[in-house]
């Protein structure tokens, strides 16, 4: 949490004063540390991170579906989970990542939970596009802002982007071969992050760049999750260039 000392101090103060609320909205650009910060706070509250935590439920869009959404069934499952008392800590926690992907039905279902939250429950709602969330949901949360920090195009980023452009000019067979070679390296996630950061800096003011940025953001998310086929995700992204 070194990058977010102000936010860290905020939570330290409310915990010290026993003023922890029941719902917090983390607002900031994608890949700006909201999820990592949420995991740190969950560790602080329960002594465990996201993995194998019986008192935490993580809700996020299903990347295996064509439509990148969080559905009402996900929130209903969350409601059932939150209805039980904490198992091994003082709190029952819910983290909703990319909450702006909720359908209107899911958002309304969440609102009902926030209106009458279970005892000892805390909700962390993460969003890069809070304008897409109903105002009624926003009004039930305390907002914590993660402001963007100016980023400078580095030589490393230029090199990574040049390589990506070179691959984009190749045929399908060469792209698939490149994906295989890239996947065999341990640092492919870092390279994808360099692509994303570099393209954001260069294309942020160009509306036509939105599709490739969305696909790259989706790729970055998929390869951060161990349950997905990372090589296939790399192939799909490169084929669509």
UniProtKB/TrEMBL annotation:
Pfam families according to UniProt: DNA_pol3_delta2
**SUPFAM superfamilies tied to this protein:** P-loop containing nucleoside triphosphate hydrolases
GO terms, biological process: DNA-templated DNA replication
On the tree of life, the source organism's domain of life is: Bacteria
The name of this protein is DNA polymerase III subunit delta
């Amino acid at each position: 949490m070194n990058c977010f000392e102000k936010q860290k101090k905020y939570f330290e103060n409310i915990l010290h004063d026993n003023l922890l609320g029941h719902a917090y909205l983390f607002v900031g650009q994608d890949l700006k540390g909201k999820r990592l910060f949420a995991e740190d706070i969950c560790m602080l509250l329960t002594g465990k991170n996201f993995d194998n935590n019986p008192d935490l439920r993580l809700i996020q869009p299903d990347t295996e579906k064509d439509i990148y959404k969080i559905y009402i069934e996900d929130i209903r499952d969350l409601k059932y989970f939150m209805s039980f008392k904490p198992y091994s800590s003082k709190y029952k926690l819910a983290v909703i990542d990319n909450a702006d992907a909720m359908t209107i039905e899911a958002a309304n279902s969440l609102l009902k939970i926030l209106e009458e939250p279970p005892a000892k429950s805390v909700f962390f709602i993460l969003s890069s596009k809070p304008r897409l969330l109903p105002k009624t949901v926003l009004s039930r949360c305390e907002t914590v802002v993660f402001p963007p920090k100016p980023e400078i195009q580095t030589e490393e980023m230029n090199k990574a982007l040049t390589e990506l452009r070179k691959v984009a000019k190749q045929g399908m067979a060469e792209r698939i071969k490149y994906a295989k070679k890239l996947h065999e390296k341990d640092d492919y996630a870092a390279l994808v992050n360099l692509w994303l950061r570099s393209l954001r800096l260069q294309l942020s003011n160009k509306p036509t760049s939105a599709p490739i940025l969305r696909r790259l953001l989706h790729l970055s998310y998929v390869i951060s999750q161990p349950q997905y086929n990372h090589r296939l995700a790399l192939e799909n992204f490169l084929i669509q260039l």
